[in-house]
Amino acid sequence: MHCSSSWLTRPFRERATQCFLGILLAALAVVTLFNLTLPAEHPLHVSTYTVTLLGKYLSYALLAVAVDLVWGYLGILSLGHGAFFALGGYAMGMYLMRQIGDRGTYGDPLLPDFMVFLDWDALPWYWLGFDMAWFAFLMVLLAPGLLALVFGFLAFRSRVTGVYLSIITQALTFALMLAFFRNEMGFGGNNGLTDFKELLGFDLRSDATRLGLFLATGMALAVGYVLCRAIVSSKLGRVCVATRDAEARTRFLGYRVERFQLFVFVVSAMLAGVAGALYVPQVGIINPSEFSPIFSIEIVLWVALGGRATLYGAVIGAILVNYAKTVFTGVMPDAWLFALGGMFVLVTVLLPKGIAGLLAYRLRRRRPPPSSSPEPTAPREASA
Prior knowledge:
Subcellular location: Cell inner membrane
Main location: membrane
Order of helices and strands: HHHHHHHEEEHHHHEHHHH
Protein name: Amino acid/amide ABC transporter membrane protein 2, HAAT family (TC 3.A.1.4.-)
Number of domains: 1
GO cellular component, one term: plasma membrane
Low-confidence stretches: 375-384
Shape: globular
Mean pLDDT: 87
Strand order of the largest sheet: 1-4
GO molecular function, one term: branched-chain amino acid transmembrane transporter activity
């Protein structure tokens, strides 16, 4: 019992975790305060649109933390985490579609509008149960978790590593994208799932619900960050780092490396699914483009720009890159990909450890140098 509590509370004793949680909670409080108390014409007022945009950034930050867990500490460059994100999003979207009921365009209480349009006469079996919130929320974890379990078991048992594993993960998400684009799959085809009405009885169009989703996403990010810190600061985390740096030596010492890889990979996939589930009600749509391999590559760029193997660097990278994307796509939509590529090249050349590495370097520069005066030694006893 003592070991279990120590494993869970260890991250809270780390200065980096304390600073991260303090900044995150302060940001959540400030945004909430400025949204609720300041009038719309006030220059510091945070509009509901901005709250929703920030909530989307936070869901991306949770996704980046999930990728940094497997890439930064396990050495697995996954180019398919967009698939886990999308599966969690689709699980949430299916629940939200079932909540529409007879308020849809065609007024069918059971079938979503796209199924009525495609002349479906019955709800597919895999849609059953998504009218219940507990079942849908469970599937947010189980759908990406089971996919990661099956895929990881086959890949890690076969000792597929390096660039080959990256290519396989990219092929996985590409195959899922092609499948979900088909109308016969029953997930809305290329239009996806949209026109959501309510979540747990709350109107998704109301300002209060938008603010609640923003706060829920921020708290999920905090929990996900602490969970990842607990993993990487434990004995499990040390084995993961050893596997990343010298897998053959770790196997030689008697560790079943594939078991550690599989556990961390499944946890990371579940975190990505939670991020997708929080993303969908805030943006109001989920479609097969979330399975796009380009999106999964963008996630890796967030982590690389922010700083690999730091967790908080992944959060910084996700928020900064997506904020830049919002600005560039509004001003110069055709130049965004060039700006992203240029940003990645500059950081790779000038900041190989990312923004987090630069922050750590500046903090070390500010620390006072250790004292150069010799420590006092005990006097020697006089010889007889």
